[in-house]
Amino acid sequence: MASLDAWLAKPATAASRRFSLALSQTFLPRLVAGLTILLIWEVVVRALAPAYVAKPTTVLLAIPKTITDPAFLSAAVQTLTAVAQGLLISVVLGTLIGLIVGRSLLADRMLRHYINGFYAVPMIVILPLVSLWFGYTSSARLATIVFASLFSIIVNVSDGARAVPREYIEVSRSFRSGRWRSLFEIVLPSSLPYFLAGLRLAAGRALIGAVVAEFFTSINGLGQYILLMSRTFRHDEAFVAVLFLAAFGVGIDMVTQGATRRYLPWYRRDERTT
Amino acid sequence: MTADALRRHGPFWLSLIIGMALWEIAGRMANPAFFVPLSETLVRLWQLTESGQLIRQFGESAVLFLTGFVLAVVIGMPLGLLLARVRLMRVALEPYIMILYATPMVALIPFILSMMGFGFAPKVLVVFLFAVFPVLYNTIEGARSLKPEMIEVAHSFRSSEWALWREVMVPYTLPFTMTGVRLAIGRALVGMVAAEFFLSSTGLGQLIMTAGQNFDTPGVFAVILVIGLMGVALMRIGLMIEQYFARWRD
User: Fold this and answer.
1) Fewest Cβ atoms closer than 10 Å to its Cβ: which of A52, B188, B192, B214?
2) Is B96 within 8 Å of A34 when comparing Cβ atoms?
3) What residues have CB less than 8 Å from B233, skipping those under 6 apart?
4) How far apart are CA A122 and CA B232, in angstroms?
């Protein structure tokens, strides 16, 4: 019995020692650094900037009021819905095109330059064109989001499709599986880590696209909310919206990285692109 | 020209010709207020170049891009190395850098506008903010992957801190930094256009905005083409820089 107790106690103390080590070596410096940054920000703004400029204390006080404000809520719902819709379109279209480009040499040689070209174009230059085509509507925002996110998915999925080990394809072929079947049942699952990396980039770019489109066309959304609030000198409310966007960006990073680690432990590709 | 070269490059040229033909045909069929053929775009591009307008605005944009980008590299790299070397600082600041990296920087533009106004400095700040985090992040990641043994060896040869930086840290980290630089080039370009759109209107951003407001669709297409080609060229340059510095890695 005593040995059992000792056995039970042992990992617990090791874990708690590790925990306190982590506490003192990572959590504490982080807390101190965070508080220092906030303190410097507060002091500098109080001393040098006009009263309307956002500072930590007033932003903190503005949080409860802002997140219950119907204008903020409807803006957040609008933006996030548009981002979700745009991403869905990009994922379906981008995966399909990416798989074809990745597996067909001819399609690759025909389309690669266009895909890389569009990928390199800063997406926000199409705003005047998109607003010309769709008017100042939410379709213009959706189009911007799709354009912003589509090419990251295509590029990453086609990279993944190209990296599928040749043996997988050979085995599936020797079992007489058809072209499309091996595309969706061998190539697609095998390139999932690349897809997730692409999705992570695409989501970040989609968010930027949505905000930029809202700046440009003044349709209801978080970008427009930030613009309106900062123009009417309510920087604290505007900053709460920025914090919300930042949290969304960080959340996407954490979910996609967590999914890669949890469900695809055989692949690690912690490389950040664009 | 061998058959092999033809097979390799043939589809590319063929697809380029098909693409241009499609643009031309679609442009002729569509409403000219919405879409214009390639030929008209090129004519407008030539007019803009000849009047000197394009060159001048391009110059303005280039100065903005280069100032913000160079500042980002000059500040991002030493800071990244410092954070990598001083473990406590890295541990303390890393999460905040990650958060700033994931924040869509465009959302900060209205604040910059209302605090700094319409000069050149706020625009440089936008380009800088877009570009600095990839450089910083990749430098830290690179310097962190430096094996402790290498530093230990340097120390056991009585290397000074300065020599350690010059002979070990900087050369080892450069390829990683250059990956960040490649990414920063693309983001700085987005920052440049965003700054020219949403802060005081100058450069190519202004050119495209005025064209859009005057329903000068060929003008919009011409400037988009210029910025697009700029993006492609800069991406190429970035890749070349990255590969040049990564020679020893594999």
Assistant:
1) B214
2) yes
3) none
4) 10
> A–B: how many Cβ contacts below 8 A?
154
Identify the residue among B20, B90, B115 best suited for mutation to test binding to A, counting A beta carbons within 10 A and taking the highest: B115
**Interface pTM, i.e. ipTM:** 0.82
Tens digits of per-residue pLDDT, A109-168? 888 888 888 888 888 888 888 888 888 888 999 999 999 999 999 999 998 888 888 888
In one letter, which amino acid is B202? T
**What is the full DSSP assignment across A196-218?**
HHHHHHHHHHHHHHHHHHHHHH-
The residue count for chain A = 274
What would the pLDDT profile of A51-96 be if each residue is shown by its tens digit? 788 888 888 888 888 888 888 999 999 999 999 999 999 999 999 9
Decide if A125 and B92 are in contact by the 8 Å CB cutoff.
Answer: no
The amino acid sitting at B226 is: V
B79: confidence class by pLDDT, cuts 50, 70, 90: very high
Q: Would an 8 Å CB–CB cutoff place B211 in contact with chain A?
A: yes
Instruction: Return phi, psi of residue B44, to 5°.
Output: -60, -40
A35: nearest CA in chain B?
B92
- Rounded Cα distance between B71 and B74, Å, is 5
